[in-house]
């Protein structure tokens, strides 16, 4: 599978999770951790409202599940797919988990901490270099978020 097709496939899967989050009243963000063999390790979607846990972002939950499944906190052979650019908390978790690659859909112009507002992976505060691909299925990811927020106004 070509790299772009691979990224689009997994982002489609993350979008399915994001839609589920939105249907449950959560901000529609989905995340998937995939290993170097292109096999899914874990998946999650936002659950802050359901759990009343401010750290229950899709990325954090997917990383926790992947660490549990693999029995290690080092995810250096894994990639994370997420529909929205991670916030500072999630960017920190991504760095600390030593993820090899981050692939995200839509930029977050309010709290994006990968490239849009902050650049935590390339900052002096980062002790890990991370490969980043942004804008995968960006229109679909952005439209899902926009329509979800508009439906609540």
Ordered list of secondary-structure elements with their pairings:
Elements: H1 3-23, E1 30-35, E2 40-45, H2 48-51, H3 58-70, E3 78-84, H4 88-96, E4 101-106, E5 131-134, H5 138-150
Parallel strand pairs: 3-4, 4-5
Antiparallel strand pairs: 1-2, 1-3
Helix pairs in contact: 1-5
Give a concise summary:
This protein is α/β, with parallel strands linked by helices and 153 residues long. The chain is 39% helix and 19% strand. It is built from 5 helices and 5 strands; from the N terminus they run αββααβαββα.
Please state the structural category: alpha/beta
Q: Would you identify the regions where 5 or more consecutive residues have pLDDT less than 50? A: none
Strand and helix order: HEEHHEHEEH
In quaternary terms, these chains amount to single chain
User: Total number of β-strand segments?
Assistant: 5
> Main beta sheet, described?
5 strands, mixed
Number of helices: 5
N-to-C CA distance:
41 Å
Classify the beta-strand content into a percent band. 15-25%
Would you tell me the overall average pLDDT?
Answer: 96
Which strand order does the major sheet show?
Answer: 2-1-3-4-5
């Amino acid at each position: 599978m070509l790299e772009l097709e691979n990224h689009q496939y997994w982002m489609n899967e993350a979008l399915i999770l994001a839609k589920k989050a939105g249907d449950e009243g959560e901000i529609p963000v989905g995340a998937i951790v995939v290993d170097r063999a292109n096999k899914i390790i874990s998946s999650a979607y936002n659950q802050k409202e359901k759990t009343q846990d401010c750290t229950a972002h899709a990325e954090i939950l997917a990383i926790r599940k992947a660490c549990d499944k693999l029995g290690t906190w080092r995810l250096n052979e894994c990639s994370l797919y997420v529909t929205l650019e991670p916030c500072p908390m999630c960017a920190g978790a991504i760095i600390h988990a030593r993820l090899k690659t981050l692939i995200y859909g839509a930029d977050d112009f309010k709290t994006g901490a990968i490239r849009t507002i902050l650049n935590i992976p390339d900052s002096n505060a980062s002790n890990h270099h991370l490969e980043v691909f942004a804008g995968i299925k960006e229109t679909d990811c952005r439209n899902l978020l926009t329509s979800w927020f508009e439906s609540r106004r």
